[in-house]
Design a protein that fits this description.
Strand content: 15-25%
Shape: globular
Largest sheet: 2 strands, parallel
Radius of gyration: 11 Å
């Protein structure tokens, strides 16, 4: 996931707002770990709706 984020242009100077609820879905946890590995700050937002 770190490679995917880096290929999207995310760097250590970026902040990522993760607008989803943390649960057993492994991809969300992989995004958190990927952001950590590239040094970006990940801000958890919890579950959100489109409003």
């Amino acid at each position: 996931m770190g490679t995917l984020l880096a290929s999207a242009g995310i760097t250590a100077s970026d902040r990522l707002f993760m607008a989803f609820a943390f649960g057993p879905f492994i991809a969300f946890w992989a995004a958190v770990e990927g952001a950590r590995k590239i040094g970006a700050i990940m801000i958890p937002g919890g579950g959100r709706d489109s409003r």
